[in-house]
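Section: Multi-chain targets

For targets with more than one molecule, the full set of components is provided together so that the structure can be written out for the assembly as a whole rather than chain by chain. Components appear in the order listed by the source. The example entry contains two components.
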Amino acid sequence: MSAAISVRQLHKHFGQVHALRGVDLEIRQGEFFGLLGPNGAGKSTLINILAGLTRPDSGSTAVMGHDVQRQPVAARRAIGVVPQELVFDPFFEVRDFLRIQAGYYGVARKHKAWIDELLSALGLADKASTNMRELSGGMKRRVLIAQALVHKPKVLVLDEPTAGVDVELRQTLWAFAQRLHAEGTTIVLTTHYLEEAEAMCERIAIMSHGTVVALDDKRSLLGRHPWYEVSLRLDREPAELPPEVVDCLSAREQGWLVLRLQRGSGDLARVLSSLHDCGLSVLEINTQEQTLEHVFLELTAGHHTAGVARS
Amino acid sequence: MNWLGLWTLFTKEVRRFTVVFMQTIAAPVVSALLYLFIFSHALSGRLEVYPGVPYPQFLVPGLMMMTIIQNAFANTSSSLIFSKVTGNIVFVLLAPLSHLELYLGFVGAALVRSLLVSIGVYLVALVYLDIAVAHPLLLLVFGALGAVLLGTCGLLAGIWADKFDQVATVQNFLILPLTYLSGVFYSIHSLPPAWQSLSRANPFFYLIDGFRYGFFGHSDVSPWLSVAVMIGANIGLCILCVRLLSRGYKLRS
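Its structure, encoded as tokens over all components, is:
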């Protein structure tokens, strides 16, 4: 079975900027895949190349086994892309617009019922006869999602689909995305909301400076982070903390000590023992598991600094 | 060939201009008729360019071709630059349409709009002028060649331009002067020899001269030369346009 998306040694320059620096990536069929990275990391460039909107300098990309450069028509049939920008055609009503999109793919008549289903599932049924320019931003975003799905693509790319949208749309979108995923659609998600990626995606790639700096399943990626945080509330404010605590103290917040401990190192036992030796009792203890955000920040550390330095 | 995709693009482009019918069809018809009324009033009875053809009748084919030229160019160029500036060009670029299908869809709609305007001018002129058609087939051939040529020019301008101002520059400083200097209002035989030679270098001259032959059976140069020049120009520009589309020039970064 061919990969849903295959990317080999992809390079792209925009003038002096080396946007993609030899990206290699393989997304399996049926995956819910997260593509993360700070602004300017190269995510949108990669997506635009997959969609055929941008041409690479070198390297190859394939969607469902169809080479994007050599078999562009077949590759475009296999992929649906929700663009990041809120673009729309002001000449048409919502249903007309979707029919036109379906017509481009040669499926307008065959997918008539599917268009109705999309309108209903995305909460657009009562806006079907509304002109695109009269829709709110959130509604336009829903139409963009529907247009990416009119031809029932095997691969759906959601490029920051929840940027600036309300909670209701997010919930509608994620419920619908999960339904499509359950039906076998491969979904590629880029988002700045890391908790969304953590909740939805099975595998995650993190990009920085035009390269993939991490690519793993979610558990392994989270497991890479060697630290976890423990918050302790003591029975009294100590005059002096034992050195075992000071060494790993990251913050003191409203009577709580926040400690950053290394996983599997025995740090917690040493801390508790030292506190006990000083006659201090622990009243409450909270453990905070590492999040994708920690991993993300660690892997992309220096991205913004480097960006500023370059500019 | 993605026939349904091509048909969808073509009908979408046709609907795009019919939605604003007053601006895209009615207004150009009225403009052309104003030229006809003013020049007819000023020059009627003073000029007879071809034997037995009064000046108002002589003027009608020129004005019809002028509307074909201007509207075919305007349709493709405005559609493409509008889509580029607003960003909705992405919907066409994401679709599984080949370069040739893109070309045919856009130019086909330009052909329909320009012929509709041209037929509108003719029908209104018929109300008070007696204009017979000597060679209807040739008339159709020149009308189509002109519409396709200028539809292609508009597409090229739309591909090249990054803003509306650049399209307007091409329209006002290239298309409009070439149209007015191609013999819309006169026969080039009335010009000094040097200007006659210069006029023959203007491709729009062959369109108008051939189109006029379709009406009166008279022309300044052989209609077959005009057909040959126009077919050559159409093939050349079509190849250029499809190549630019296939390279994604200024469309796919």
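The two ends of chain B are 25 Å apart (CA to CA).
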